[in-house]
């Protein structure tokens, strides 16, 4: 990723100008915030686009970043504005993936993980969207996010690591545990289906 929030080298005069703009924006001056918007929109948009890979969606999320920033501008320290914007963007990206609903091929998930962690679980089936989403809810919040980013959005571990602020080693462990848990849950679901073939899928999944 080319964007590296908070670590770009900015001339002193530009830094002083930005601090003054943030200070003025905190006083409710819309023109000052408008200038901050012009300074940062493209950077924030690019940061989001590389993580969602969709132009219109990235634009929408970027706009929401600045709406939230304007609403809460009084709470930010002048020197923290840049990192604060990127944190808002990251939170909105994570919210997007939490809300997204897609079909997932568990065999593909298992095969990818098997090649990385030498697993040999039998998952030769495609889980229907409704069933998968029910099973996914039984994972921890972090496991849910990692599974969605890795296998729905096809992100690399280094991209996931940067997005959710975890090490790549931690991401691998989370993936491993999440897939094992999903496989266990799916086997339980299949057993329940065999015992109660007349039940609807959503009723076959119990806590």
Explain this structure to me?
With 207 residues, this protein is mainly alpha-helical. It has two domains: 12-99, Orthogonal Bundle (Rna Polymerase Sigma Factor, Chain: A); 106-203, Winged helix-like DNA-binding domain superfamily/Winged helix DNA-binding domain (Arc Repressor Mutant, subunit A), CATH 1.10.10.10. The chain is built from nine helices and no strands. The longest helix is centred in the last third of the chain and has 28 residues, at 168-195. It is elongated.
Brief sketch in words of this structure:
The protein has 207 residues and is mainly α. It has helices at residues 12-26, 30-52, 55-71, 81-99, 106-117, 129-136, 141-152, 157-164, 168-195.
Q: Can you give keywords for this protein?
A:
elongated; Rna Polymerase Sigma Factor, Chain: A; mainly alpha; 207 residues; Arc Repressor Mutant, subunit A
- The proportion of strand residues reads under 5%
Content-based structural category: mainly alpha
Give the SSE string: HHHHHHHHH
How far apart the termini lie comes to: 40 Å
SS summary, helix count: 9
Biggest beta-sheet profile: none
Query: Which residue ranges are poorly predicted, with pLDDT under 50 across at least 5 consecutive positions?
Result: 112-127, 199-204
Globular, elongated, flat, extended or rod-shaped: what is the shape? elongated
Mind telling me the CATH superfamily name of the largest domain? Winged helix-like DNA-binding domain superfamily/Winged helix DNA-binding domain
- CATH architecture classification of the largest domain: Orthogonal Bundle
CATH class of the largest domain: Mainly Alpha
What is the residue-averaged pLDDT?
Answer: 77
Quick one: how many beta strands? Answer: 0
Q: Rg from C-alpha positions?
A: 22 Å
């Amino acid at each position: 990723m080319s964007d590296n929030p908070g670590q770009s080298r900015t001339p002193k005069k530009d830094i002083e100008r930005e601090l003054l703009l943030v200070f003025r924006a905190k006083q409710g001056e819309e023109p000052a915030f408008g200038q901050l918007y012009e300074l940062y929109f493209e950077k924030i948009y690019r940061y989001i686009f590389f993580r969602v890979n969709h132009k219109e969606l990235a634009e929408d999320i970027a706009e929401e970043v600045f709406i939230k920033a304007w609403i809460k501008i009084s709470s930010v320290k002048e020197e923290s504005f840049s990192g604060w914007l990127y944190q808002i963007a990251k939170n909105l990206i994570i919210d997007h993936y939490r809300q997204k609903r897609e079909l997932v091929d568990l065999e593909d998930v298992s095969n990818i993980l098997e090649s990385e962690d030498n697993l040999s679980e039998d998952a030769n089936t495609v889980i229907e969207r409704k069933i998968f989403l029910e099973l996914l809810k039984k994972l921890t919040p972090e496991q849910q996010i990692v599974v969605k980013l890795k296998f729905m959005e096809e992100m690399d571990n280094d991209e996931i690591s940067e997005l959710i602020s975890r090490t790549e080693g931690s991401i691998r462990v989370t993936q491993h545990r999440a897939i094992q848990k999903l496989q266990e849950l799916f086997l339980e679901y299949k057993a329940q289906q065999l015992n109660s073939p007349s039940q609807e899928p959503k009723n076959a999944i119990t806590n």
